[in-house]
Amino acid sequence: MTTPRHVVLIHGTWSHGDTLGDARREFEARGFSVHTPTLRYHDLPRHQGAPKVASVSVRDYADDIVGLVESLDSPPLLVGHSLGGLIAQLVAARASHAGLVAATPAPAAGIFAAYPGTLRVFGAHYVQWRPWAKPLYPTSWKLFRRRITNTTDEDLARELFAEMVPDSGRVYCEMPFWFLDRAKATKVDFAAITTPVLAVGAERDRLVHRRVARATAKRYANGEYVEIPASDHLVFHGRALPLTMARIDEWMSRRQVLT
């Protein structure tokens, strides 16, 4: 019998496993066995999940995904979007895998990310007392539309907005204040990742600047950067999805990842 070719898709902030449903179907159509885990407490209603997720570390998220990866019968392709892109890198440094795709990734320790668009969306979280112990609630529709889904079809944007859940305030202190974090939660062991790495940026991303993806690719011996034209932050949705999959297809074929 043929060993399944696994893909693990890791969602981003305020999301859940089904958020990447369209991307999952694209990989399934290519013959892969696809796993779309939901990060810790992201499956709970807002009032239940908020107090539980508030103090979760990005390392906790990574621990859960490492457990999934190690349960598989062959090394998977790791694909992460946004915060999931950072988590995928943390997992790749610890678990056997076939390759890594970090799409519009959140920054690892040492990568500059304090761009105006990022600060406009997340800045309000930091003006409250002890933000590392508070949940990070979803942003407003106005900011979601202007900064995250600025090129996405509005109907799809509203659908995604309605499904958002609270996330960890601790994670959003670990990322920008990595230099104060004794645990070094967002520090990636780049040298430990020797498989092919593809970092995906988006031309019109107003949340995570495309320079973050470029800087991420440069950290790896086998890193490459590609950019999705006319796309906002959501490269795995809507009109951007076929372009993103085409870039991944070409990279996987050329680098012989799960081929």
Descriptive terms for the model:
single chain; 259 residues; alpha/beta; 6-stranded parallel beta sheet; 10 helices; 8 strands; 36% helix
Structure, explained:
- Keywords: Hydrolase.
- The protein is α/β, with parallel strands linked by helices.
- Helices cover 36% and strands 13% of the residues.
- It contains 10 helices and 8 strands.
- It has helices at residues 21-29, 46-53, 58-71, 83-92, 116-122, 141-148, 154-162, 171-174, 210-218, 240-255, and strands at 6-10, 33-35, 77-81, 99-103, 135-136, 167-168, 197-202, 223-228.
- The mean pLDDT is 97.
Question: Summarize this, please?
Answer:
This protein has 259 residues and is of the alpha/beta class. Helix content is 36%, strand content 13%.
First-residue to last-residue Cα separation? 16 Å
How many β-strand runs? 8
Low-confidence stretches: none
User: Fraction of residues in helices?
Assistant: 25-40%
Form type: globular
The CATH superfamily name is Alpha/Beta hydrolase fold, catalytic domain
Q: What is the residue-mean pLDDT, rounded to a whole number?
A: 97
CATH class category = Alpha Beta
Topology:
Elements: E1 6-10, H1 21-29, E2 33-35, H2 46-53, H3 58-71, E3 77-81, H4 83-92, E4 99-103, H5 116-122, E5 135-136, H6 141-148, H7 154-162, E6 167-168, H8 171-174, E7 197-202, H9 210-218, E8 223-228, H10 240-255
Parallel strand pairs: 1-2, 1-3, 3-4, 4-7, 7-8
Antiparallel strand pairs: 5-6
Helix pairs in contact: 3-4
